[in-house]
Amino acid sequence: GDSVTQTEGPVTLSEGTSLTVNCSYETKQYPTLFWYVQYPGEGPQLLFKVPKANEKGSNRGFEATYNKEATSFHLQKASVQESDSAVYYCALVPHTGNYKYVFGAGTRLKVIA
Amino acid sequence: GPKVLQIPSHQIIDMGQMVTLNCDPVSNHLYFYWYKQILGQQMEFLVNFYNGKVMEKSKLFKDQFSVERPDGSYFTLKIQPTALEDSAVYFCASSLLGSYEQYFGPGTRLTVL
Question: What mean pLDDT comes out for the span A48-77?
């Protein structure tokens, strides 16, 4: 079946350093890829999505490129802030019309001042 | 942005009892979802629902689970009877028809004793 594997957390970084959260996916269908962010006490919220291979998504300084050949969608940010502390989820939904999301396990990021 | 509300935020019940989790989706959304997240584990798809029908469900969506949205009111997840392994946070989400972008509620933490 479909699956998403991402960097195991927790990840602890100092403010101003760079972030990479790896995400690899498996599906026999052509998917749209997502990064969601979840703050304490809230549901996940969309960071950005990329529906087409070889395109990049970005938001709030975060970015990821849909790499179909490598089946990867790694999340990067050049300089993290304390407010970026949250759990980050990589997810996919195959273009089959059944709207069935598959989420990764989540990566908890803690940024210290 | 658009908000999905979930009621209650916490629910504690005894094993074998019935529980109903309520979700107030974004007003013009037509596709609805439930996810289950056991503490420390990843969020897993349970079911999606459109036009009064279950479109897709996972193996986690046991026979004791049911969903409905009577007359455009709350989208509900009912568990009858509950079991200890049903203890988790349940997230509701909704989306526009034809959109892969889901909006999540803050979750209901269900504890089955």
Answer: 96
Burial of A51 (0-12, 13-18, 19+ CB in 10 A): middle
Six-digit token string for A19: 């972030």
Per-residue pLDDT tens for A64-101? 999 999 999 999 999 999 999 999 999 999 887 778 88
Omega before residue A10 within 30° of 0, cis: yes
- In contact, B14 and B79? CB cutoff 8 Å: no
Preferred mutation among A8, A101, A107 to probe B, highest tally of B CBs within 10 A: A101
Shortest alpha-carbon distance between residue A55 and chain B (Å): 17
Calpha distance A89→A14 (Å, rounded): 21
The pLDDT confidence band at residue A3, using thresholds 50, 70 and 90, is: very high
